[in-house]
Amino acid sequence: MSETGTVLHIIPTLDQAGAEKQLTLLAGELKRRGWPVHVCALTRGGFYQKVLEAAGVPVTVIGKATKLDPFAYLRLRRFLRQIRPDIVQTWLFAANAYGRWAAWRTGVPHIVGSERCADYWKSPWHFWIDRFLARRSDAIVANGRYVQDFYVSHGIPRDKTVVIPNAVVEYPAGSDSRRAMLLEFGLPDEARVIALVGRLWPQKRVEDAIWAADLLKRIRDDVHLLIIGDGPLRERLMQYRDKIEIADRVHFVGHRKDLSRWLPHFDVLWNTSAYEGQSNAVLEAMACGVPAVATDIPGNRELIVPDETGFLIPAGKGGRAPLAAKTKKLLEDEDLRRRMGEAARRRARDEFSLSRMADAYCRLYEALLSRRPVPARPEDEPLAV
Prior knowledge:
There is one protein chain. It is built from 15 helices and 13 strands. It is α/β, with parallel strands linked by helices. α4 links the parallel β4 (87-90) and β5 (110-115). α1 (18-32) packs across α15 (354-369) and α8 (206-217) packs across α13 (320-332). The protein starts with 6 loop residues before the first strand and ends in a 16-residue tail after the last helix.
């Protein structure tokens, strides 16, 4: 390593979710490689705080209480002056906004933003903030070409963006059996199990999955869909499931901290999202040798090689029948399912390893540290407040 400096990662929470997991993987690997690394959660800690601390990564929680919390901003600035990081990297909009502004105002030498998804929810005001802070950032990391193109189309300079794909770790075989998985979820011995993993909100289009499960029920009597996750649409989706009378085949099992125990025993993974950055659920299924049937959207195209590691189907209502048909094909052809699963495992290992992702971040950080600090930053402030 040519040069190291203290790296601080700032993120809204350390809940068990996609960006939080990627940060945790990266921070742990940086620590292992000898980088001085800290993590700061703006609002609260969570599941990954314990994981980080067990890996020896210090975690600080600022305690932001409201969307616009000036006291949290002042606490964040105080914390930055205390640890004096060489690089601040921020994740997700709240941290991108609070973190980059505070880092710039306290004279942090190098600032890196992170964009994890094509955020269609953002208003023109959000994009103005993104553009304003991009001018005060050294780089913007996107986890895929689609995310990069999305933000470039909204005014982020392409020459400031760097694409570093998500990473996945290989899961050990473990001692849990398929039989134990079926018992855990109350499924019969002959059940073929499909999993859909994600937050229950409109982007994920879970109703399409429920509809496709109903189609499968009409041609096979052994298919069960596990919907793993929670969110604001849970009650509405359960009502929809009950309305089409498929409660015996579609099971809402909530958020699961032990998903890695059961993922290798699923037969197929579904992803019905209307848009994604890079799906952690698809990547983890690939690493476990589980083929995915997913919507043909840019984020999924960067992960799945069609007809080789999985199937891509149209997004929206037009994809419901193809979703059922491709899944039926996998369930009825064990050799095909095995070949696709092994090809997916190899792709995850070769293209999306943690080592590969960490190498890319280290190259970025080393390139920044080899330069002189970006000019036109305010003078560093005294430690006392």
